[in-house]
Amino acid sequence: MRIPSAPTRRAVIAGGLAAALLAVASSARADPGPARIHAGSLVLIGGALKEDNTRVYGEIIERAGGPAARIGVITAASVPESQDPHADDPEQCSNSACNGAHYADVFKRHGAADAQWIPLDVDHVANADSDAVVAQVESMTGFFFGGGDQYRYVTTLLRGDAHRDSKVLAAIRAKLARGAVVAGSSAGAQIASGPDMVTGGESYEGLRDGSAPGYFDDPTRLGYLPEGGFGFLRSGLVDTHTGAYGREGRALRLASDTGHDRVYALEENTALVVDRPGSPREHLSVLGPNGVAVLDLRDARARDSADGWSLRRARYSHLTDGDRYDPRTWRVRVAPGKHVLAPTATTAVPPNTDVFHSAANPDGTPYSFRTTARALASTRGQDSAIATTFETGPQFTVTLTKGRGFAAFTGDGATAGTLVALQVDIAPGR
User: Fold this and answer.
1) What is the Cα 240 distance to its own chain's centre?
2) For residue 1, what pLDDT is reported?
3) What CA–CA distances, in Å, run from 108 to 59, 66, 116, 184?
4) What is the percent of the chain where pLDDT is above 90?
5) Is the bond leading into 394 cis (omega within 30 degrees of zero)?
6) Any residues with CB less than 8 A from the CB of 16 and at least 6 apart, and which?
7) Which residue has the higher pLDDT, 415 or 130?
8) What's the N-to-C CA distance of the chain in angstroms?
């Protein structure tokens, strides 16, 4: 069976989802209501979760009860069997049923007592209000939402313009409140978002054209759903595949446009673990080989001019394995064993002419923004670095600055890893 990795950057999602979303998109943001006190936890992965990532799978299983864990697998973000031309080929299929069976097998191989596909997809929307499926959900101790298109989760598990919970989603929400773990990768992490959940777009086009409510056939157009996703995590916007697809720019633009002051920008094969989401005791930690960027817009100021859009005084923190974060105090707690980095490089930070890893650049490099940020942190005597977008007309310039509060940490004593409060300024050029 062919499990989809990260969705292709230029893919146009089939099945009429674009038209459906445009029917419900509006410029007014849904009232998020009071935060719920949750005893459970979230494990949100930035996509491309590898089958051999024993630490992340093991974390989900441990939080679901260890050897007694029973994982409910939900893959409604995938196409249903009716839309998969390879549905009858177990080596090539990539639909909700075969993806669900795949993940169930992976969880069992990693030590779960049981893992079952929850039979939900856009061809079986009624199952989300089935008492039998609710009973199946009630028998689980943890849940995993797979990748694909997050709007399929909206159409499958939410009801009406007010986005009321289906019976199945209400049961999962109640399980989370009582202590269950809810995990997800890619679209399965995005759907945990509250209001203004991103629906697509590229960084350059987002910076140039701004965001708009809706879901668009043009995959470069920055769109969002004002009503949001399931609202499990409301302390910041959520984005995924961040460094691999260069999404830092789109995340900053969307947050600025919609009035959010924080984004959790998740990188691939790495988890953001959230304990007690929605409560005053909510805290976060990072698990995996890449990291999670926290984009801070509390002091940021955006401006539109004849030359284009600009943003000043945003801040970028990049958390790596073992680091913790308190959203209430905005404080990063660096993992034990990491030390303050003493910059040793004496040559200037290398030029970066594709800071957001443009899909239009066949020679582009993933994690380009992060690479420049780390190079600056490692360079002695250089307080700022300039990078540009691959595209022109206008070309955007990104300036990274070691300003007040900046700090960098290393785990091996030589290379930059965790970064805290690096200033980010974006300005249009010619």
Assistant:
1) 3
2) 53
3) 14, 11, 10, 17
4) 89
5) yes
6) none
7) 130
8) 48
Structural domain boundaries of the chain?
Answer: 17-24+36-291, 308-323+340-428
Give dist(CA 144, CA 106) in Å, integer. 12
Using DSSP, how many helices (H) and how many strands (E) does the chain show?
11, 24
In terms of pTM, does the model score above 0.70? yes
* Neighbour-count burial of 405, counting CB atoms closer than 10 A to its CB (0-12 exposed, 13-18 middle, 19+ buried): exposed
**Which residues are within 8 A (CB) of 186 and not within 5 positions of it... i.e. 6 or more apart?**
6, 7, 45, 46, 47, 48, 146, 147, 148, 240, 241
CA–CA distance, 231 with 80 (Å, rounded to integer): 25
Superfamily of domain 17-24+36-291: Class I glutamine amidotransferase (GATase) domain (3.40.50.880)
The residue among 163, 161, 151 whose CA lies nearest residue 198 is 151
pLDDT in tens, 409-419: 999 888 999 99
| Bridge partner residues of 419 (DSSP) | 318, 408
CA count, 13 A, side-chain hemisphere, 70: 9
pLDDT band at 33 (very low <50, low <70, confident <90, very high): very low
Q: Averaged over 112-121, what is the pLDDT?
A: 98
Strand partners for 308: 305
Query: What is the tens place of the pLDDT at every residue in 51-63?
Result: 999 999 999 999 9
Structure tokens at 173: 């929400």
The Cα 289–Cα 343 span in angstroms is 23
**H or E, element range at 258:** helix 248-258
